[in-house]
Specification:
Elements lengths: L3 E10 L2 E11 L4 E5 L6 H8 L7 E10 L2 E2 L5 H7 L4 E4 L3 H4 L6 H8 L4 H14 L5 H4 L9 H13 L5 E5 L7 H18 L2 E6 L2 H7 L2 E6 L2 E7 H6 L4 H8 L40 H5 L5 E2 L5 E2 L8
Parallel strand pairs: 3-8, 3-9, 6-7, 7-8
Antiparallel strand pairs: 1-2, 1-4, 4-5, 9-10, 10-12, 11-12
């Protein structure tokens, strides 16, 4: 069973594609991480799924399916009815996303489209589930009275109270310290399992991916470079970009004050995308074919797909 399916999704600004024919599926209770450098297309992919794209960006191809419902051509009113109830999103920087003038309880109740007086017990229970202490007091407080970690838990409560089938979390721990980050990730993992909610986690942090994700899709310059079970991708990365990305993570075993591993070169701008592999200009394994042809995702070991003519270990 598939909760969310994205097939050949393409997004463009003007005539320039910024996301190019990406595909992935997420099952109930599964956490899929979309990972890659800033600007690779992760967040706009999430916005496209939610039908919240900025006016300058348009979907030029592909199909997004929620269960049996196609979202790509759904009327705007029907899409509004699905948001929150069937598919929800946790945004970056919760203190910016929450209304400073409304109480926590009213904002959570709004996700149920009910006044707080009618659903107060349900909202209180949701605060308990997301690990907020003293829920009877917190329910009547405003966001500015809470810490960043508590505000993020409130955002999770808002997203999950209507029990959506799919939850999209866009960099949900970016503004939090590492201790709170670990708590939020554990909370997402637990709630996904308990509620059988499919989670799409948007992140650039490979450590976060290792902590929470069942599967990972590595994006580069608007395309999926590699996808598969997290453990397999981390153990034996097949795409040169994935291998270099993992090699750049500092480790406790590194020699003190030694130079950090880096990926030479820069991510190309969308206007500079060529006909071939978009990583070719930075790839130590690239040849003429890589520059001239676009590699398609193809199966490799351990249930993975890789878009590379010369995969690592291949």
């Amino acid at each position: 069973m598939i909760a969310l399916s994205v097939r050949d999704l393409s997004l463009a600004i003007g005539r320039t594609n910024i996301v190019d024919a990406i595909s992935f599926d997420v099952a109930p209770g599964e956490v899929l991480a979309l990972v890659g450098e800033s600007g690779c297309g992760k967040s706009v992919t999430a916005q496209a799924i939610m039908r919240l794209l900025p006016a300058a960006i348009r979907q030029t191809g592909g199909e997004i399916t929620l269960g049996a419902t196609s979202l790509s051509n759904l009327p705007a009113r029907a899409m509004r009815d699905l948001r929150g109830r069937q598919i929800a999103m946790i945004f970056q920087e919760p203190q910016s996303a929450l209304d400073p003038l409304a109480t926590v309880g009213n904002q959570i109740a709004e996700a149920l489209r009910q006044p707080l007086a009618k659903v107060r017990a349900e909202v209180r229970q949701m605060l308990v589930e997301v690990g907020i202490s003293d829920p009877d007091r917190r329910i009547d407080q405003h966001p500015f009275e809470l810490s960043g970690g508590m505000c993020q838990r409130v955002m999770i409560a808002i997203a999950l109270i209507a029990r959506p089938a799919v939850l999209i979390a866009d960099e949900p721990t970016t503004a939090l310290d590492v201790t709170i980050q670990a708590q939020i990730l554990a909370l997402l993992r637990r709630l996904a399992a308990e509620r059988q909610t499919a989670v799409v986690l948007i992140t650039h942090d490979m450590g976060v991916v290792a902590d929470i994700a069942d599967r990972v899709a590595v994006m580069y310059a608007g395309r999926v470079a590699e996808t598969g079970p997290t453990a397999a991708v981390f153990a034996t990365p097949a795409h040169p970009y994935t291998a270099l990305l993992l090699a750049s993570i500092p480790r406790l075993s590194d020699v003190p004050k030694s130079a950090l591993a880096v990926i030479d070169g820069q991510v190309p701008q969308p206007a500079d995308y060529g006909a071939g592999c978009r990583f070719a200009g930075r790839c130590p394994r690239a040849d003429r074919r890589c520059v001239a042809e676009t590699p398609a995702l193809r199966p490799v070991a351990d249930g993975r797909l890789v878009a590379c003519f010369h995969p690592v270990g291949g």
